Amino acid sequence: MEYYIYHLNETKNLKNMNHPASPAFPFRLLICGRPDSGKTNMILNLLLGNKIQRLFKEKKGCVKNCYEIFAKGPKAYRENVTFRALKADAIPNITKFSPDRNTVVVFEDLCAESKKIQDRIVPYFISGQHQGVSSIYVSQKYTQTPKIIRENITHLALFRGSGSWDDIHRIVRQYTDDPKKASKIIDKHLRDQNFVVFDFTKASDDPLAIRLGWDTPLKLDE
After folding, report:
1. Which of 35, 131, 171, 182 qualifies as a cystine partner to 176, CB 3.0-4.6 A?
2. Rounded to an integer, what distance in angstroms lies between the CA atom of residue 72 and that of residue 55?
């Protein structure tokens, strides 16, 4: 499997990232869900808004190549984005990144890799913020993600198939007096092909602590 590095410090269109519900750089995001649940598309929309839809209104299959498209595409859509796709065994030391430029590193479906590979990833979630690095770990299951990474994220995004009802129950019990009811509400949204975001930078009683998508507060006690 590969991981991806995006240097986004000088992008012209940061409207999405300036939204109060968007994660502030540097962030540490865990995304969980079964294949084809919308995980990668969410990453694209989070970082670049609707540019990919405006540039390719009717085309599909652009997800893997979209960052290279923006770096080399028509001038009106071009961004100052450096893109690199590297093999898991080529993950650099976190100190190799310059804190003077924002960097987003995406670790995609690496949870089945060896402990040696996981040990290379962990520093990104513990000290990456000091190097200006925002890290995104993409996994199919919440419980398949190394515990030390789960314990150091700022945001969690759950898609359908991301975990069992018990997994959801364990996550939401810090936010509500009725985690059983809350788990059912979240499970229903996931089955309806929505995604739910937990923002661990917010107080537990903040309306944006749990959201449907990135910007809609999700009420669990009604």
Report:
1. 182
2. 13
